[in-house]
Design a protein that fits this description.
The structure holds 2 protein chains of 2 kinds. By secondary structure, chain A is of the alpha+beta class. Helix content of chain A is 23%, strand content 38%. Chain A is built from 2 helices and 9 strands, in the order H-E-H-E-E-E-E-E-E-E-E. In chain A, the strands form 2 sheets. Chain A has a 5-stranded mixed β-barrel with strand order 2-4-5-7-6. In chain A, strands 8-9 form a two-stranded antiparallel sheet. Chain B is an alpha+beta fold. Chain B is built from 20 helices and 13 strands. In chain B, strand 11 and strand 12 form a beta hairpin. The chains are: A alpha+beta, B alpha+beta. At the A-B interface, helix 1, strand 1, strand 3, strand 6 and strand 7 of A face helix 3, strand 1, helix 13, strand 3 and helix 14 of B.
């Protein structure tokens, strides 16, 4: 019985410390998914949270100035100005019209300061059909 | 042509369903001819799927652009090799590859074991065919690779197809997906044997002995697949990283972790008759995680940068998982009596206990990764708010887990079975500990103050010394007895027990990878605009921009820099980081230049031009020790292959007395 107690204690200690790490990790790094519309209504407490916004990169909006990259993210006809100054290079898929996901915080000036950008081009791994098959007819969607 | 292909898949589907019923009914009603016909159905399925895949490949290579799959995944100008790899370039094709691989495995398994395990083979066949049925159902009815493009009632030939994304036109991407698939698919086999053994109330560990090599080979494929993906990300994506904790990457890691746990805990069952329930649970978990991984990659379940097609096939996978997991759980619960442990844990300081903790830690790691991956889904279900956790979360949890595993890697193999005393531990671990701590102290004195890095290096050294001592001690014993020289004695030693010493070699490979991972703590980077003719400095490196050239060919427009790299003033040669924009797809790609050395890589990325168009933006990185990861892979490969060579001497382990109801049925075979 004494053995089982020892094992129990050790296992509890290991799992406990891992759980503690995990809970702390979630608390520190959790990021809220928001739409651009939700961002506008966020108010002052929103400035503290790490946020993630997705949208399309507005055409011709990408401006590189030194380390900073500035662009506009459009979602449902709403625009959000994003400034990226993270250390990781922007992905190759980051280009006009691509879908992008920006992680960062909302500044009081309404500019979104991103520390991480993920971009996915719809054709990156799986070509998005330009021909949609609806019924038997061939429809050109683009 | 497409009709023959679709027909072959449909027939294969029917045969698979037939094989399930025929083999189970044949077994229950004792009708050998039914079992035999099920076996033949398995072979026929392989032939049918080979025909279907062959037709698909033929259409891809010859550019039959009437077919939707061909038109979407290949075009005229692609090199033949990429036309071939378009087989798994899209959803329908990869499901076909999955099915073909599984049917190949099934045919081999049935052929090898049909006489040896008459009892459980019908059920093994049924489980294999049950899994295959899912995939055949999908490619026969939901996502057919032989769909033609139709306009009204006529079939259209669109003339030419879409290009394969240039990012994927790279050699590792040619073999990365099939390697992962070979891994994913392979775990069906040990799972099927475990189930067959449970259903037929097999005594003993026949299923483990039979599937040991399968599991090893499969594990090796998966390791290879994961590392190829990492290597591709590092040298192609221009991002400088090799692992981003993306959901799709995690999906491939999860079954790898449980499989690793399984490879370790089967030793407990083989040698001590313990952890029987656990092993069945582990192999089932691995199998279901493989299916889950396919679901994640194929159904856009969690938002991922990999951006695979969103599709409805996810539901079928979820149903399969639910039914499969429920069935497996039921079976395990019903057969609990046959899974009684034959021995008990005696001491916290024992080999058994180290295996137990190894498993606990691996599973905790697996759970943490799974939790983090599914966090957006879970949080949305619970709180209505979608919250994600990122790389910092994963790093924070997995680094301590990894370090603890490293410790166990050193401790486990040296500690005695059953119970060990503090004195013997002191003797065994004196030198490894001293050398490990000595290394950490030395590094600290040399100016390395990163806590985790110091711990990691110390533990890596600890493991290396324990492994070297094992080889040395064993070889000395042979040397003393036979008088052979030390090197020959080591070879002889490994040959006598390939599993044990091959395993040690794998451990060394993992240590190398850990050294590489630890190097991440010392990365340096700089992103800056550098006018042509001037230089940038990063650590001891100096990068001089000599010039900028623009070229264009029919495929892409390119801008290449001509840079000279200096380290401490010594010229290290010129490099040409390049930026291309592919004309058809408008896809920009970075052709990074990497100066690879064992101690550190210098990584140059031409990120583009500044907005005014005059100054190139350069991203330069120093990545210490990254090469160790890739070297570690080769060592793991060598070690795993060593494990698969049959040992020269057959080992007989003392088995402890068999208790419980299992004792009545057990026949101990050594």
């Amino acid at each position: 019985m004494k053995n089982y107690l020892k094992f129990g204690l050790l296992i509890a200690a290991i799992l406990g410390s891992l759980a503690w790490l995990a809970v702390g990790g979630i608390g520190d790094t959790k990021t809220y998914y928001k739409t651009v519309a939700e961002l506008n209504q966020l108010g002052p407490q929103g400035a503290e949270k790490r946020l993630r916004v997705a949208g399309d990169i507005a055409p011709n909006s990408i401006i590189r100035a030194g380390k900073d990259v500035k662009f506009t993210l459009a979602q449902d006809h709403l625009n959000l100005v994003v400034v990226y100054n993270g250390t990781e290079p922007l992905p190759d898929t980051f280009k006009d019209g691509a879908q992008a996901v920006a992680d960062g915080k909302l500044g009081s000036d309404g500019v979104f300061h991103a520390t991480k950008i993920q971009a996915k081009c719809a054709s990156k791994y799986e070509a998005k059909p330009t021909m949609e098959k609806s019924g038997t007819a061939l429809v050109h969607s683009s | 042509m497409e009709n023959i292909g679709a027909l072959a898949i449909l027939l294969a589907f029917c045969f698979a369903v037939y094989a399930i019923f025929a083999s189970v009914t044949g077994k229950l009603a004792r009708r050998p001819f039914l079992i035999l016909s099920a076996e033949r159905a398995v072979y026929s399925i392989w032939i049918l799927l080979t025909v279907a895949s062959g037709l698909l490949i033929y259409s891809l290579i010859n550019g039959d652009f009437r077919m939707a799959y061909v038109a979407l995944h290949s075009n005229h100008s692609m090199p033949a090799i990429y036309k071939f790899t378009a087989w798994w370039g899209g959803q329908e094709g990869s499901l076909t590859l999955w099915a073909w691989l599984l049917s190949t495995y099934s045919a081999v398994v049935v052929f090898q074991n049909r006489r040896r395990y008459r009892e459980m083979m019908p059920y093994v066949t049924a489980v294999l065919m049950g899994t295959l049925t899912l995939f055949l159902f999908l490619i026969a009815f939901i996502a057919s690779p032989f769909q033609v493009i139709q306009l009204g009632k006529g079939i259209v030939d669109v003339g030419d197809g879409q290009v394969l994304n240039p990012l994927l036109q790279y050699w590792t991407m040619v073999i990365h997906p099939p390697m992962l698939y070979l891994g994913y698919v392979g775990f069906t086999v040990p799972f099927a044997f475990a189930m067959g053994s449970l259903i037929t109330k097999q005594p003993g560990d026949a299923w483990i002995h039979t599937t040991r090599r399968w599991t090893l080979v499969t594990w090796l494929f998966q390791t290879t697949g994961i590392l190829l993906g990492a290597g591709w990300a590092y040298s192609v994506l221009g991002w400088g990283g090799y692992w981003g904790w993306d959901p799709v990457e995690n999906a491939s890691l999860l079954p790898w972790i449980t499989a690793t746990a399984f490879l370790h805990s089967v030793m407990m069952q083989e040698k001590k008759g313990m952890m029987k329930i656990w092993n069945v649970v582990l192999i089932s978990t691995t199998f279901f995680l493989c299916i889950f991984g396919t679901l994640m990659t194929r159904a856009g379940f969690v938002q991922s940068v990999h951006a695979f097609a969103q599709s409805s096939i996810g539901n079928y996978f979820v149903v399969f998982l639910a039914v499969g997991i429920a069935g497996t759980l039921y079976l395990i619960l019903v057969r609990l009596d046959y899974l009684k442990s034959e021995a008990q844990l005696e001491s916290v300081l024992s080999r058994e206990s180290s295996f137990l903790f190894n498993n606990l830690i691996l599973l905790a790691g697996c759970f943490a990764v799974l939790w983090g991956t599914l966090f957006p889904v879970i949080s949305e279900a619970l709180t209505g708010e979608k919250i994600s956790v990122d790389a910092p979360f994963f790093n924070r949890v997995t680094i301590p887990i990894g370090l603890f595993l490293m410790l166990l890697t050193g401790v486990g193999p040296l500690i005695a079975w059953r119970r060990s005393s503090f004195e013997s531990l002191q003797k065994a671990f004196k030198w490894p500990t001293l050398i490990g701590v000595g290394l950490a102290a030395g590094l600290f004195a040399a100016g390395v103050h990163h806590f985790y890095a110091l711990v990691s290096f110390a533990l890596c050294m600890f493991v290396v010394v324990t492994v070297l001592m094992e080889f040395y001690k064993g070889a000395m014993a042979i040397h003393a007895k036979d008088g052979t020289n030390l090197l020959a004695a080591m070879f002889e030693l490994t040959h006598r027990n390939t599993r044990r010493y091959g395993g040690y070699i794998v451990h060394i490979g993992i240590v190398l990878m850990f050294i590489g991972f630890t190097g991440k703590a010392f990365d340096k980077d700089i992103t800056t605009e550098v006018p042509v003719g001037s230089s940038l400095e990063l650590g001891r490196y100096q990068l001089h921009i000599n010039g900028l050239t623009s070229t264009q060919n029919e495929n892409y427009v390119s801008q290449a820099l001509d840079v000279t790299l200096f380290k401490d003033g010594n010229n290290l040669g010129t490099f040409h980081p390049e930026r291309r924009v592919y004309i058809v797809s408008k896809q920009p790609t970075s052709e990074v230049s990497i100066r690879r050395r064992v101690n550190e890589d210098f990584y140059m990325n031409f990120a583009g031009m500044s907005t005014d168009g005059t100054k190139p933006v350069i991203q330069a990185y120093v990545f210490p020790l990254v090469s160790c990861i890739w070297m570690g892979y080769w060592v793991v490969l060598f070690g795993t292959l060593t494990c698969m060579i049959p040992s020269k001497t057959r080992l007989v382990w003392p088995k402890t007395a068999i208790v419980g109801i299992a004792g009545k049925h057990a026949q101990v075979k050594n």
